[in-house]
Specification:
Layout: H1 2-21, H2 26-43, H3 52-63, H4 70-96
C-alpha cells in the first residue's frame, strides 16, 4: 500500500493545475486525496496478503494455535472491505459532490 500511495502522490499533485485550468474548485480536488487515502488503507483489508498488518496478525495467531487460511479469511474480509469502501465512497460523495 505504501509504495502505491508513494507512486500516486505525484500523479495527484500534477492533476491539481489541470483542475484549476478547468475551473474546478480545489476543494473538489480534495476528493482525489480522500479516495487515495481511503482506497489504499481499506483496499488491503480484503485479503490476507493485502496488508502487512494482516500477515502479522496471521503469524501471531498461527503461533498461538489459531491458523488463518487464505480462503476463509477472504470469505469474511472481502465483503467487509467492500462495505467499508462503499461507506467511504458515500462519505466522499456526500461531502464533496
Amino acid at each position: 500500500n505504501i509504495p502505491f500511495v508513494a507512486t500516486m502522490i505525484p500523479m495527484v499533485k500534477s492533476m491539481l493545475p489541470v483542475f484549476q485550468q478547468a475551473g474546478i474548485p480545489l476543494e473538489q480536488a480534495e476528493t482525489l486525496w480522500w479516495a487515495l487515502a481511503l482506497g489504499a488503507c481499506l483496499g488491503g483489508n480484503g485479503t490476507l496478503v493485502g496488508a502487512s498488518a494482516n500477515l502479522i496478525v496471521a503469524g501471531i495467531a498461527e503461533r498461538n494455535g489459531v491458523p488463518f487460511r487464505f480462503l476463509p479469511f477472504l470469505k469474511v474480509a472481502f465483503p467487509l472491505m467492500i462495505l467499508q469502501v462503499l461507506i467511504s465512497t458515500l462519505y466522499i460523495w456526500m461531502r464533496y459532490l
